[in-house]
Design goal:
- The chain has about 190 residues and is mainly β.
- It has one domain: Galactose-binding domain-like (Jelly Rolls), CATH 2.60.120.
- The strands form two sheets. It has an eight-stranded mixed sheet with strand order 10-9-8-7-12-5-1-14, with no helix packed on it.
- It is globular.
- It starts with a helix and ends with a strand.
């Protein structure tokens, strides 16, 4: 029984491979736990990313939308974990292809890499998909999310924050993120 559990985990949570300083991941590559539908997404649960197929313009099978409540200062709810492998060490810029709710201003999620501090990450435009991603360092202080990464294994964690905020893809670029929407193909992955 233990072996089957290990094999299932390897299938559900692959390790994404950086190549030539770039890594691209579809968010739905790590499945949500439980059953998540649009009809059930507004129940006010704290652990509630929704596999959204109705929001237009997403890549892949769906995007993930935060269906839980507004969580201004409570990171750690609805954790999405993406395991990555960096071959080329250096400073990487994180970008999230995201979309704010149509009526929103300043929608965001929480993000951290390798268990460091949680950052508020803002992005997207109301009603439009965008790779624009900003890490909030304080009031009115928005900077690109840059992080030095050594060669080896790392983990990106995303936590829900703003109700209705959608995420579609993640990107790490060693020389910044300079591509146009929707971006390059997804990076290769290997089982854990």
């Amino acid at each position: 029984m233990q072996q089957n559990t290990i094999l299932r985990e390897a299938e559900l949570n692959p390790i994404w491979q950086e190549q030539d300083g770039l890594l691209i991941v579809e968010v739905e590559s790590v499945p949500l736990k439980g059953i998540h539908t649009r009809a059930l997404s507004f129940k006010g649960l704290w652990d509630e990313w929704v596999a959204d197929t109705e929001t237009r313009g997403h890549n892949g099978a769906c995007c993930y939308r935060w269906g839980g409540p507004e969580l201004t200062w409570n990171p750690g709810s609805g954790l999405l974990r993406y395991r990555i492998h960096i071959q080329t060490p250096g400073e990487y810029t994180l970008a999230i292809r995201s979309r704010q709710a149509d009526e929103a201003t300043g929608d965001s999620c929480f993000v951290r890499i390798d268990g460091s501090r949680w950052w508020i990450v803002r992005g997207g435009e109301p009603g439009e998909w965008s790779w624009e991603t900003w890490r909030e360092g304080g009031p009115d202080q928005l900077d690109p999310y840059c992080e030095p990464l050594d060669a080896g294994f790392h983990q990106i964690e995303i936590s829900g924050r703003s109700h209705g905020f959608c995420i579609d893809r993640l990107a790490l670029g060693r020389n910044g993120i300079t591509f146009e929407d929707p971006g390059p193909p997804v990076s290769a992955a290997r089982p854990r």
